[in-house]
Each structure stands twice: as structure tokens, then as C-alpha cells.
Amino acid sequence: MADQLIRATAADGGIRAVGVITTRLTEEARQRHQLSYVATAALGRTMAAGLLMASSMKRAGSRVNVRVKGDGPLAGILVDAGLDGTVRGYVGNPHVELPPNAKGKLDVGGAVGNGFLYVVRDIGYGYPYSSTVELVSGEIGDDVAHYLVSSEQTPSALVLGVFVGATGVTAAGGLLVQVLPKAARDEALVAKLESRVAALSGFTPLLQAGKSLPEIFQDLLGDMGLTVFPESQILRFYCGCSFDRVLGALKMLGEAELQDMIVKDDGAEATCDFCGRVYQASSEQLAQLIVDLQAESSVSG
Questions:
Q1: Tens-place pLDDT, residues 233-244
Q2: Global model pTM greater than 0.90
């Protein structure tokens, strides 16, 4: 099943639901970063959450940055997700592994530890909107739901899942259900929705059982006036890094540092944190950067 995002509404527009399947892009992230089992689950959940949050933005080019900064051995998570369906991300310690938690599942909460969730929403102009909340469990889903309730005052239920085995990621994705202001006063509706989401056995078991996103919506909201939008959005792991950007970053180091790289290393190597791509700059290319800096200095002087 292709990685995709599908939207739906229920209760006369009072409930907003978004589902994502992110199996392939999570597997790509696992391979790019050589992630352990628990690191794969942590990054996969956060990428799915980022895409779900970005889906509510309106302006083309809008993006959400989600940073999980905890004191656990994972050493943090950073995800960048866009309204266009692209996502990228990495963890601080990709090789950490922990025993299963008390429920026999990957111990993402233990790997993340205690700390904070930072969310930055960039709509493409003006100052980005940022907010910080304390981590509730480190399991990502609970933490993002807490953010949505406390920072955006939107009652939200979030179910995230990543199943990774010996052959890699075989199921990943998530479901976000939100009660919008016009329906939030209906306490019976809210309670009914909370009960149904709580009864879910998880998200990846549904995918593994062959359920599609519209079928999952139907099971959850089918008797609440469900409308599933026919358009599906393709999701993919994508990083906009380039060699030109690497050269631009190297140039900012200044003449002395560039000259030192030429003498000591005969060039420079840079690795993109987000996608793991390695860039090599030769001593000749570094020398050209020095020439460019000198020319710019001469003009400005």
C-alpha cells in the first residue's frame, strides 16, 4: 500500500479526521540512518505526527518542525514535515537499543526520557509560530496530543504506530481525530469518540490486517455522519539538501578555516543530518570559495 494521507469529517463537520500510511518512508529513514528497532519506532512515529499536524495548514509551502528533546539515550528527535506531503528527520543516537517495556513493546518512552516537545509552524511568511510543552510519556502520540490540547485548545486523539521486524518496517502510520469548537460542547459526542479511540488495539495491527484508511475511518466514525474525501495525497521522505548549500555553509566558515581544511585535509566532507547524504568538497573547490570571499571583501571595502 502506497504511503498516503486521507482526510475525513464527521458529525456535520464537527469532527476532523486525518490518517497517514508511512511504511515506505519510515523504512527509507531506517535505511538512511541505520536505525535500531527503538530508534526506528521513535522517528517513524514522529514523522507520522509531523505529517498529521502539517495537514491542517492552509498556505502552500507551510511546514512543521517537531523536536523531541528528552534526557534518554536516544538523544532527541527532529522532524521537518510539509503540507506538500514531504518529511525528513533524524535522531541523536540512531543505534540505541533497549529491552521491551512492561507491555512487551519497543520502549520509545524509555529511549526518549523526560523533557520537552517543541513545535514550530512556519506558514511561509512572517514569524513562525512556536510552542513548547512538557513530555507526557515520551511515547510521541501522547505528547503530541497533549500539545494539541494545551497549545491549540483542540481536543485531539492521536494513534501512532511503527512495526519493525528483522526485514525492516512492514507497517507504519497514524490517525489524528480532532473535535472542532462547534462540536466540543457536545460532551456525549466527545466521550463516545474518546471511548472508540481508546478501544483501538493500535494502528499498525489495522494495517497488517489489510485495512485501508477509509475502512479505518468507517469503523471509527461510520455512524457519525462520516464523509471521506476522495483525494489522497502521496507522502514521501524528501530532503532538500544540495552540494550548493554545503558550499554555502562552508563559505561561512571564513578564509582561515577553509585554508586550514585545504592544508590539513585536502578538502572537506559534510554529512546531512536529515538524510545521511555525504558531500565531498575538493581542495580546489575550497580554494575557489576563498577567491570568492576575497572578491566580495574587495567589493564591500
A1: 999 999 999 999
A2: yes
